[in-house]
């Protein structure tokens, strides 16, 4: 795979918002009651703000085409993976796995990675467990995972 995972700029916000919308809306195929996603998932201004705050990242293929993204929040030695998304036409090609590994590699001094995902999402719950994330708690809506280094 000829892929690069890097910080995204404000110029990437439109494309990333579109990919985010497609990715999260596709969750109806794995248990979501209707299309939708986390706050701001389809908003260009939200993605611009995340880029300006250095929270927005992009996955680019060998041709320079953006095929996925992530929103990451660092606080001390903890990194919260706010969201990771891939263009649905690239599902099941290993790109999500690549992004998660790159996220962990980009922050070698982080001691704890955290994330959450909806209870109903069988795809993401299986994915994070496969990557070594442990369920810390759950409520009626969300499962909260962490991984220590």
Quick overview:
With 149 residues, the protein is of the alpha+beta class.
What's the rounded overall pLDDT mean? 94
CATH third-level topology? Aminopeptidase
Helical run tally = 4
Q: Could you state the CATH homologous superfamily?
A: Gcn5-related N-acetyltransferase (GNAT)
CA distance, first residue to last residue: 26 Å
CATH architecture field: 3-Layer(aba) Sandwich
Q: What would your notes on this structure say?
A:
This protein is α+β, with helices and mostly antiparallel strands and 149 residues long. It has one domain: Gcn5-related N-acetyltransferase (GNAT) (Aminopeptidase, 3-Layer(aba) Sandwich), CATH 3.40.630.30. It contains four helices and seven strands; from the N terminus they run βααβββαβαββ. Strand 6 and strand 7 form a beta hairpin. The protein starts with a strand and ends with a strand.
Keywords:
149 residues, alpha+beta, Aminopeptidase, 7-stranded mixed β-sheet, 4 helices
What topology emerges from the helices and strands here?
Elements: E1 4-7, H1 13-25, H2 44-52, E2 56-60, E3 66-75, E4 78-86, H3 95-106, E5 112-118, H4 122-130, E6 134-138, E7 142-148
């Amino acid at each position: 795979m000829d892929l690069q995972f890097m910080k995204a700029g404000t110029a990437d916000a439109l494309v990333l918002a579109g990919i985010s919308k497609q990715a999260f809306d596709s969750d109806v195929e794995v248990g979501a009651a209707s299309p939708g996603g986390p706050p701001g998932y389809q908003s260009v201004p939200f993605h611009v703000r995340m880029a300006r705050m250095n929270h927005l990242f992009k996955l680019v293929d060998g041709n320079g085409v953006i095929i996925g993204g992530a929103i990451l929040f660092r606080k001390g030695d903890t990194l919260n993976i706010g969201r990771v998304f891939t263009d649905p036409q690239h599902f099941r090609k290993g790109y999500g796995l690549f992004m998660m590994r790159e996220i962990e590699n980009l922050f070698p001094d982080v001691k704890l990675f955290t994330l959450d995902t909806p209870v109903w999402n069988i795809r993401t719950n299986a994915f994070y467990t496969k990557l070594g994330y442990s369920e810390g708690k759950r409520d009626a809506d969300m499962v909260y995972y962490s991984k220590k280094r």
